[in-house]
């Protein structure tokens, strides 16, 4: 943070985001003393020269003087963003807006990839109505535009990190700054790991050498989420491609060719049709993002090589030099690859504890719900001894399982109800592996783990109840409509009934039997779905209910609802064949259209249903058969 003494007489210290209140009082007092404050607080528009030239010149002079005072009272980093602002009033309002937003809203201390940074920053800019400055072509520098441009430029630059200012110090427009960072990310997509490996080969002590900010390469590598597979969650088909890619064992991994070359025949133009076919394949590969996924796996491969080389330096150090927050940071962020290699190299690090709170690695893994890290830690032969430790507030590991850490909300679970289910699963898993005396152990606040679970999850239970009831209410309406329609269709069959016997006219037709069977299936499945959702609406919503009872009802309800909609559409199609025999030109297009709503509904609910099934039946936090070091 820049905190140098100001060169102007207006303030004792230049502006930064932490001293705005004192700075603004000093600048305001100075401007009042110089008879310039009226320019800043004026509500009227500035006078135009054609209206009164003398008044306009006097206003322009005072505005320039006030703006100059504001500019020289700011450091270079802040003066840079208001360089296009020509109004003292707009400059003052811009600085006030910059300092009113907490730095934590736009700056992330953890290392992150360009994609993560751009998504996070774009969301922030859209929230504050600044994204249009980046997205659209530059507008004329009107006062409103210059203010929004300055705000966007500042937040883009500062959110990028310590290097942001030096990359865009000669850029005054937010759109150009955004494009510069995008180009920078492309050029640095592959860090020069071979150079780093070569440096470590000759100077191994560099692995723990601190930089200007006191961070060692090992510590930086611990926080680089994009450098590990655990920090890049891919959708299922991209994950399949990622697992299928094989990285060649080359000496220089940066020189591995990653682009898919076209054939010589296509280059020479000797076989046009083959070239067109290969062009289609090339476009398909681009659509599937094969190159990007290869780049990602290559980066992970390089990072692991670098980590393994750093680990060779660590055994000669004492536990305090080894830890220094590195492993703690990796555990909190879920960097299981880093934790695995570090603890395999230095097993004694499993005993390290957080200085400020006295929490162990096990406590932090449970508190931050990092199941992969916790699963690995549980392979340690010292786990029983570590389970018995308490922190400075006498919290046991079961207390941490009962707490709700805000970072736990980042877990990819569908809705608050299933986040609550995950919380109860964590509590039950930890409860099953600790000594029974911990169930009654109280912390310094007199809370037992079970009491803490209830107290800390009150709001989440309410959110889960709201989510369940809203979902169930919506689905209940659909299920009730299907029951009504299918019941009416069963009574008033297509073709009517025979006058003499009262039996359906098309009773002996095969398509009529399809109609009746699908009608019955739709009616029964919709009725089942309706009962399940009514059961959800009338549940008591205790913590235990979120573990099995409520999720099972939701899974059965959604499954039977999808089945009822599908069989309802089949019933509709069968009735068309009965009513319009031999009219296939009319029936088939209608059937094709009838498939659309079923497919859309099933597609929208399929991911939710799969996530619920996995969360309820296939979600295991611990692998109790594993052993440490395997």
Short description, anyone?
This protein has 29 helices and no strands.
Q: Low-confidence runs (pLDDT<50, min 5 residues)? A: 1-7, 250-278, 624-630
Number of DSSP E strands: 0
Largest sheet: none
Shape: globular
Helix fraction by DSSP (H/I, runs of at least 4): 55-70%
Q: Mean pLDDT, as a whole number?
A: 79
Give the radius of gyration: 33 Å
Total of DSSP H or I helical runs spanning 4+ residues: 29
Strand content: under 5%
| Topology as a string of helices (H) and strands (E) | HHHHHHHHHHHHHHHHHHHHHHHHHHHHH
Class by helix and strand content? mainly alpha
Please give the domain count.
Answer: 5
Distance between the termini: 45 Å
Record keyword descriptors for this entry.
5 domains; mainly alpha; disordered C terminus; 29 helices; 630 residues; disordered N terminus
Task: Explain this structure.
With 630 residues, the protein is mostly helical. It folds into five domains: 20-100, no CATH class; 104-187, no CATH class; 189-333, no CATH class; 353-456, Serine Threonine Protein Phosphatase 5, Tetratricopeptide repeat (Alpha Horseshoe), CATH 1.25.40; 459-617. The chain has helices at residues 20-33, 37-41, 53-72, 76-81, 88-100, 114-127, 131-135, 143-160, 164-167, 174-187, 193-202, 217-222, 236-244, 264-268, 272-287, 290-311, 319-323, 326-333, 336-345, 361-367, 371-377, 383-387, 397-402, 416-433, 449-456, 458-491, 510-537, 549-579, 584-617. Helix 3 runs parallel beside helix 5 (88-100) and helix 24 packs across helix 26. The radius of gyration is 33 Å and the shape is globular.
